[in-house]
Amino acid sequence: MKQLHAAFIPGIDTAENLSGLSAALDLSGKHAINNLLWTKSGYRPEVNFVIGYTEQGIALKYFVKEQHTAAVYTTANAPVYKDSCVEFFIGFDTDGSYYNLEFNALGTALVGYGINRHNREEIPRAKVEKIKALSNMSLADGDATLNSWELTLLIPFEVFIHHHLTTLKQRGCRVNFFKCGDDLPEPHFLSWNNIPTADPDFHLPQFFGTLLFD
User: Fold this and answer.
1) What is the dihedral of CA 122, 123, 124, 125, to 10 degrees?
2) Which residue range or ranges hold the Carbohydrate-binding domain (predicted)?
């Protein structure tokens, strides 16, 4: 299983300073989401992410280049996985439970909690709307050029309603990162840590990697 580290980002004192957070994340090393799963077309968007943390929550930035981009949903907990979607799954405990956090290119979020893909608990919309997002999108004029978009996210501790988090310093977690787009002209499924199964399913915590907050 893969392992990565998330560094503390000092000096970001307010969730309103997303441009500063985005610039700080640019100084971190990128990690590729490049395991192409469950499709035979060979279509593989170029997807990378960086991750860190602040005094307020988890800081995450995605970098995407793809042929087709859609961002239809604008309401928290809408089915953003049908759009151009990046996802972050994280489990803080050893009981198998984890949060799924899914975002379209606009930053619209869907967040749930549970131990597998079935019977997941939807995190209240009021909490999900606390997530701060900064989207930067550049759409191509023709098929010869890829669409490009970046998404910076600050996920406050209060989103994780089943855990009383005040800091992540020196904490280890189970994670995976994904890219999908169920309703795009070329549906695709990509993961950071590989999922060696025949049936499509991101909700397999046994294939999560490890994230260590420094």
Assistant:
1) -90
2) 30-213
Q: How far apart are CA 174 and CA 18, in angstroms?
A: 26
Does the pLDDT at position 99 exceed 60? Answer: yes
Q: How far apart are CA 213 and CA 89, in angstroms?
A: 15
In angstroms, the Cα distances linking 128 to 67, 146, 175 are 29, 30, 19
Region of 77 on the Ramachandran plot (φ > 0 left; ψ -120 to 50 alpha; else beta): left
Specify the number of domains making up the chain. 1
CATH code where residue 160 lies: 2.60.40.1190
Q: Is the pTM of this model over 0.85?
A: yes
Q: Where are the beta strands (DSSP E) in 9-68?
A: 31-32, 35-36, 46-53, 57-66
What would the two tokens of residue 95 be? 């009981």
β-sheet bridge partners, residue 99? 90, 113
Range of the domain at 49: 3-213
If pLDDT is split at 50, 70 and 90, which confidence band does 68 have?
very high
The span from the CA of 31 to the CA of 123, in Å, is 27
